[in-house]
Recover the amino acids of this structure.
């Protein structure tokens, strides 16, 4: 499969992106991938805060500290996505375009969005309303999913190399 085709597939994962093939459009894809990550994580953080509010209203305070810690982790990863090293810039500043590096980054970003969907699925279980003995397992699974997404995103800079930033 061609690099352009893979990028088109990645672009389709982000609402509002067409299948353009110029350098600027791929910079836009990078921005929109980051925006999708940031928006998804911000939504999860807001839902955690809403859960904290509901628990506090019911005077169930035992989970508030751990939920606060989890919300802070989610916010940290969202900020990494929002403010971290830019993806396609270094690849597109080179002439000629490095098709292999672009293909690797495209595949990486597809998997990164898959990881986000996994975090969203795990958070849905937790945010449905933690109760009983399983809540510790739910929180641990959620934290592990967020930590894995963070590690995955941080490894993106290894893929980008010194030309990005």
């Amino acid at each position: 499969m061609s690099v352009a085709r893979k990028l088109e597939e990645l672009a389709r994962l982000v609402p509002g992106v067409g299948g353009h093939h110029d350098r600027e459009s791929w910079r836009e894809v990078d921005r929109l991938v980051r925006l999708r990550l940031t928006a998804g994580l911000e939504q999860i953080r807001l839902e955690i805060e809403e859960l904290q509010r509901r628990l506090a209203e019911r005077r169930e305070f035992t989970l508030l500290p751990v939920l606060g810690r989890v919300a802070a982790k989610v916010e940290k990863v969202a900020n990494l996505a929002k403010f971290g090293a830019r993806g396609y810039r270094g690849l597109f500043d080179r002439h000629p375009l490095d098709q292999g590096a672009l293909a690797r980054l495209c595949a990486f970003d597809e998997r990164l969005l898959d990881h986000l969907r996994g975090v969203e699925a795990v958070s849905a279980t937790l945010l449905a309303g933690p109760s009983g003995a399983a809540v510790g397992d739910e929180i641990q699974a959620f934290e592990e999913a967020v930590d894995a997404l963070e590690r995955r995103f941080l490894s993106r800079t290894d893929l980008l190399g010194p030309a990005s930033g």
